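Long-time lurker, first post. I've been practising inverse folding by hand and with some scripts of my own, and I keep getting stuck on stretches where the structure tokens seem ambiguous. Below is the full token string for one chain I'm working on. Before anyone asks, I'm not after the true native sequence, just a reasonable design that respects the backbone. If someone could post their per-position residues I'd love to compare against what I wrote down in my notebook.
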């Protein structure tokens, strides 16, 4: 069972359909590992459905159905009330539905020890798979908004805490952090970044030209 989870607000937004596509993907992927969050999402879905039934019907806007169907296809999430869907050895089903199996992922070099593969969902967020070699890491940085990271394999050390498979690490605008992969195995993560990232420190500031 994961020890670090999405926030209640993230779960509630997912259950009500209000989450961004990136957050919806991260929550649905985390839920494949986490029975506690699947149960909470099911409870929130029931509350949301009851609230909708109590409201008077209103006409749908033009294209509303097409928008909902496109969103469902984008996140490729399985039912949260059922048992976790089957997944390949590395990627949970909602992620693999978008990227293909892990062995077919096309990685792009970012810096020594760090590669990424973009997941294009069409929103304002940057959604990526990140592969970090043992002992390597991302230089110290801050964010203008929120960065959410779901560990898919290996382990990630961030701000004195180790995040293992299925755990979610959250960093906000007040966090200046330097996440690193723990020794022993590659750490593969799903990252969802809203806003922008700014590197800090002497070496990190030189990287900001590439982050624009």
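-- Answer (accepted) --
I ran through it position by position. Result:
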């Amino acid at each position: 069972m994961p020890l670090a989870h999405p926030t209640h607000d993230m779960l509630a937004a997912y259950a009500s359909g209000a989450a961004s596509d990136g957050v919806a993907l991260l929550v649905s992927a985390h839920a494949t590992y986490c029975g506690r969050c699947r149960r909470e999402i099911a409870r929130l879905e029931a509350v949301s459905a009851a609230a909708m039934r109590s409201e008077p019907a209103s006409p749908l806007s033009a294209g509303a159905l097409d928008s909902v169907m496109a969103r469902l296809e984008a996140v490729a999430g399985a039912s949260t009330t059922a048992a976790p869907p089957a997944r390949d050895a590395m990627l949970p089903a909602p992620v693999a539905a978008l990227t293909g199996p892990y062995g077919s992922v096309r990685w792009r070099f970012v810096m020594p020890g760090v590669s990424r593969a973009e997941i294009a969902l069409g929103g304002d967020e940057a959604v990526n798979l990140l592969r970090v070699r043992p002992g390597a890491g991302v230089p110290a940085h801050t964010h203008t908004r929120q960065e959410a990271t779901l560990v898919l394999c290996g382990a990630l050390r961030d701000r004195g805490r180790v995040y293992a498979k299925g755990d979610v690490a959250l960093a906000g605008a007040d966090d200046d952090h330097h996440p690193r992969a723990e020794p022993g195995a590659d750490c593969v993560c799903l990252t969802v970044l809203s806003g922008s990232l700014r590197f800090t420190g002497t070496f990190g500031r030189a990287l900001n030209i590439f982050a624009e």
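A couple of notes from the structure itself: Residues 74-87, 204-212 have pLDDT under 50 and may be disordered. The radius of gyration is 18 Å. Happy to go over any region you disagree with.
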